[in-house]
Amino acid sequence: MKFCPTEFIEPLQELIATKSTKEDRQIHCVEIGPGSGIVTEGVYKAINEYNKMTSFNFILIEIDNDLIPNLYNISRRYNVQHTIIAKNVIELDLSEQIRQNLTPNKTNYLYLFSSLPYYLAKKIISWQLESFYKLSEIKNLQILPVKYIIQKEVALEFLTDVPNKDFLGNFRELLCKDFKIERNLDPNAFVPAPGVDSSLISYQLLPITYDEYMARLRLLKFIKGFYIYKRKTVGKILKMKKIRLPDISKLLQKRPEEVSVNEWRMLKESVGAME
User: What is the pTM of this model?
Assistant: First the structure.
């Protein structure tokens, strides 16, 4: 990117504006793929004057070893506590990394921001949600809204209520809340300029446990199983699968794309009771 979006900085500024002191809180910031460090440095500059009042810990995940020396230099220049991890983000156990950095007897805050590679955005978002839900029951940890820059087309797929091949609408409805596009970015905001527009999105975790998160993933897998037979009704698909259910005739006459998430949930519970 050519600049650091103000939307990446605002959650930290809002948190800093509260009256808590350095002794009361620790803010853990995670950036995936900082690259040359333009966004990283923009965030450092924004918090620099507050660094004495608030304890920050930055975790920078960058797979390109050639870019890491510059990230070290930027972090040292602003005297920010930091860890740089040279690893493929999908292979990293982020939840364990965060646990190791939590400060007892303080309120810990976790904030993640990134401009994601378009071809990896869906995988990274899935990875991040699982990592964060593993932390959801830690009492002295508050997770701030996540902010990403992703391909605009993918952002719109997340917001759609019409099922699509990647089930992103169902994914959003089941696994997170307050998903929104904060603004769109044209290709000139990036170097090199991509051939598509981008969107800056944000969302929050639901107030659910990791076990409930996994149950919702199983529901998504259940839904996907019906899309193999997209042209058939739910009733015919169940008949093919040799599953008999109590009378829910209206639902059974629908095609998969016509079934709401709540109806899928009811159907899965019914199937589970019969298995």
Answer: 0.87
pLDDT in the model for residue 273: 47
DSSP 132-183: HHTTTT-TTEEEPPEEEEEEHHHHHHHH-SS--TT-HHHHHHHH-EEEEEEE
Q: Which residues contact 10 (CB under 8 A, 6 or more apart)?
A: none
Two tokens, residue 54? 């608030």
Q: Residue 190 carries which DSSP code?
A: S
Q: Is 184 helix (H, G, I), strand (E, B) or coil?
A: strand
CATH number of 6-208: 3.40.50.150
Condensed to tens digits (0 to 9), the pLDDT of residues 152-175 reads 999 998 988 766 666 788 888 899
Fold of 215-274: Helicase, Ruva Protein; domain 3 (1.10.8)
Side chain identity at residue 74, one-letter code: I
DSSP 32-91: E--TTSHHHHHHHHHHGGGTTTSEEEEEEE---GGGHHHHHHHHHHTT--EEEE-S-GGG
- What residue ranges do the domains of the chain occupy? 6-208, 215-274
- What is the rounded radius of gyration, in angstroms, for the C-alpha atoms of the chain? 21
Give Cβ neighbours of residue 115 (< 8 Å, ≥ 6 apart). 1, 33, 39, 148, 149, 190, 198
